[in-house]
Amino acid sequence: MDKRIVLITGAGIGIGRASALTFGAQGDHVIVTDVLEEKGKAVVAEIVAAGGSAEFHLLDVRSTKAADALVHDLNTRFGGVDVIVANAGIALRVPMSEMTDETWHETLDVDLYGMLRVIRPALPAMKQGASIICLSSIMGTNYGWDEHVHYSTAKSGVIGMVRGLAVEYAAKGIRVNGVAPGYIRTAQLLNPGHSLGPDAADIASPYIPMKRLGEPSEIANVIKFLASSDASYLTGQVVTVDGGLTPGRY
Ligand SMILES: NC(=O)c1ccc[n+]([C@@H]2O[C@H](COP(=O)([O-])OP(=O)(O)OC[C@H]3O[C@@H](n4cnc5c(N)ncnc54)[C@H](O)[C@@H]3O)[C@@H](O)[C@H]2O)c1
């Protein structure tokens, strides 16, 4: 297949879904993965209905065995993955006074180790020009987030992983970058147990210089750019996409 092979984790909804649709629309073969089977299959159907190419695989990024098996299959069938969007993530609201080892571990397991699990087996077969994009957060780059210390920790860890991997693989022509979204209108943001809840737009917009939430497609477009040859000299960076929130003076 001469299409690029684009592997996306957590691609059934939100930013992952928007990224899958974006890569599908530009003619890549999208490997849609998620723990949400129905949602993931619906994304594949949407890409295919629009004339694109995609396939769904159930993948829980907490499983090294499952990630290894999927990536091995992709390496065998396609000769390697061209783009990885390590996107799957959870943000559980837990005050530090109630934090257990299990909850702490769960967040790092999905948000940080989950990225390692898909990237590690893919790297040996990735070729010159390949690209990896990891989802961090403004809660990893700039802000502390109360009742989300485990999340901020994981998202800061993503930045270290991006920088280290970028340097380690630069000579092989594999670029590694991150995206740090601000407040983006997704299920994660709108869930009060995870983030700001249904009033997210009212709560956050006054502090955002652009006075609105971001849309998933506005993150997907930056991911698309980072994965393209237009970003051929860009590696080891984390691009903040937040409507001006972090440079603002509030
Ligand atoms: N929405 C925001 O405002 C925002 C801000 C900063 C960073 N982010 C990051 O962007 C990424 C996408 O977030 P979103 O807002 O689209 O979230 P979302 O909750 O809408 O989607 C998250 C996706 O990850 C999947 N997922 C969760 N656990 C998984 C697991 N164990 N294995 C595989 N998939 C799993 C979910 O099923 C879902 O498809 C996350 O890493 C998130 O932390 C989001």
TrEMBL record:
Keyword flag Calcium? no
State the UniProt keywords alphabetically. Oxidoreductase
Q: Which Pfam families does this UniProt record tie to the protein? A: adh_short_C2 (PF13561)
Q: Which InterPro entries would you find in this protein's record? A: NAD(P)-bd_dom_sf, Sc_DH/Rdtase_CS, SDR, SDR_fam
Gene Ontology BP annotations: monocarboxylic acid metabolic process
Q: Which family does it belong to?
A: Belongs to the short-chain dehydrogenases/reductases (SDR) family.
Listed name of the protein? 3-oxoacyl-[acyl-carrier protein] reductase
